[in-house]
Amino acid sequence: MTSAEAIPTQRIALVLQYLGTHFHGWQRQPHQRTVQEELEGVMFRHFHRHVGVYAAGRTDAGVHAAGQVAHFDASGSIPPEKWAAVLNNALPKDIVVLGSAAVDFHWHARFSALWRRYRYTIYTDRQPNLFVRPFAWHYYYAPLDESLIQAALNQLLGRSHLAAFHRAGSQRQHSWVEVQVARCDRTGPFLHIEVQANGFLYGMMRLLVGMLVQVGRGERTLSNFQQIWTNERREEVKYAAPAHGLCLLRVGYPESPFAPEVWWHDTMPQFLLNPLAGADCPGVEEGKPSTANQESSISAIVN
Questions:
Q1: What is the CATH number of the domain that holds 210?
Q2: Which residues does the record give as substrate binding sites (predicted)?
Q3: What are 216-240's pLDDT values in tens digits?
């Protein structure tokens, strides 16, 4: 490779799905399988040099993603929209690139993002379900009152200091988070806790869900929940929900570089768990995907 071929000529943004089950998170770590390592390995084999891949959200071990966004700097003549197919031909089956697009060099998957949206899924039926198990916390030990969980979530709306839900080991200098959406919905045996914020603290969603389950089963009052997070009583937040119930749904930007139809796929985890969900999403009518979108989504997942 010549020095000219090594000079990046374009920045490529990607929308990714991955099953977190067999990954030790997003971020590259020594002697561990990570999503970043798999992507950068493909880049190395293609460019014969290291090419960094940077994500909007650094998901933890076992956490899934339906709409992760990442970027890398490329050289060569591959059209931006073709990178999704190129990568899918080389990536393992538990990572799928849903779309690729050119962005300006000042655009950054992490720092240009306005918000991230996570969903935690709890399966409350006593009967085990093998197909649900990889994507939901099977919690049936006590009834969960979603109205109490929603009332607790309402306390967090706006800009708050959420150090109580911040795991040790983070390099972040502050614990301020602007929560824009916080909701709890039940569909049959599935309880979905969805939070959208400008950023998430290390371990925040899993610690929060662990505390919300205590509220939902009546172990903690709404007043006690408020005292814990407003007074930053981190020592009382002892339980983190299992990683496999958490999914990064989507990342928002001032102007999305991706075609609208790419984002239909970010509803797939909920759609798989509940065929009636997602009726307000592009390409979905009365709870069922249109034929065109169904064919394209199957093609994207299989290939």
A1: 3.30.70.660
A2: 118
A3: 999 999 999 999 998 888 889 989 9
